[in-house]
Design brief:
The chain is α/β, with parallel strands linked by helices. A five-stranded parallel β-sheet has the order 2-1-3-4-5, sandwiched between helices. It has a four-stranded antiparallel β-sheet with strand order 6-7-8-9, covered by helices on one side. A two-stranded antiparallel sheet has the order 10-11. β4, α4 and β5 form a beta-alpha-beta unit. α2 runs parallel beside α3.
């Protein structure tokens, strides 16, 4: 799950990026509002964590411009503990949720998962197709009740397909969901991960739509 983090405090931003990565998120970190708006407009993120007190362009302006241009990415606002009016303005401007600094990483991760789940119309935390169950919080996958060991990329690819059940995702769309900035992507990386998932979870799991991309089997 690829996340945009917009936070100008170097110490906090570095800690959030490291902590979210340990919890399985791919994180791109920017330090000002103009960069945050640019990334929201040009890249595909599962969700964004947005400090409302950013330089160059404050978080409220980022929210208003992003929503005004039709960007539907779930956005979680970061606010100071005593900034109730700012939280209200943030929610009115288009934030989907907020957390108060100092940030508890486990709560932040849970709220992000909930935002992503809701944005895809998924009512439950666990995602399932046939006898395969994926738990985003525990980062586990079972098949017929038996745990299946997946790599980080394999898990994230399966997660993306389950969130988008009924849709075909192109290779580019899958790559955007799997890799953050600076991570090398081999030309056949997605195909390799899909091959491994089919081997571990069954050939009928993922269907190739020729010339378009991939989707879950019926």
């Amino acid at each position: 799950m690829r996340i945009l983090l917009a936070e100008d405090d170097t110490l906090l931003g570095d800690g959030l990026r490291a902590g979210l990565r340990q919890l399985g998120f791919q994180v791109d970190w920017v330090r000002d509002g103009a960069a945050a708006l640019h990334e929201l407009q040009t890249e595909a993120y599962s969700a964004a964590v947005l400090d409302l007190g950013l330089p160059r362009l404050d978080g409220l302006e980022v929210l208003q411009r992003a929503r005004g241009s039709g960007i539907a990415t779930p956005i979680l606002a970061l606010t100071a503990r005593d900034a109730l009016p700012q939280r209200v303005r943030g929610l009115d401007a288009g934030a989907d949720d907020y957390v108060v600094k100092p940030v508890d990483l486990s709560e932040l991760a849970a709220r992000l998962r909930a935002l992503v789940r809701r944005s895809h119309g998924q009512p439950r935390e666990q995602l399932q197709t046939k006898d395969i169950v994926l738990d985003p919080a525990a980062r586990t996958v079972t098949r017929a009740g038996e745990t299946v060991a997946l790599s980080t990329r394999e898990f994230d690819l399966l997660h993306a397909l389950l969130l988008n059940a009924g849709r075909v995702l192109t290779r580019d769309q899958l790559e955007q969901r799997l890799y953050a900035w600076g991570q090398e992507v081999d030309s056949n990386a997605v195909e390799v991960h899909i091959h491994h998932l089919r081997r571990k979870l069954g050939n009928g799991l993922i269907v190739t739509v020729r010339g378009v991309g991939y989707t879950l089997g019926a």
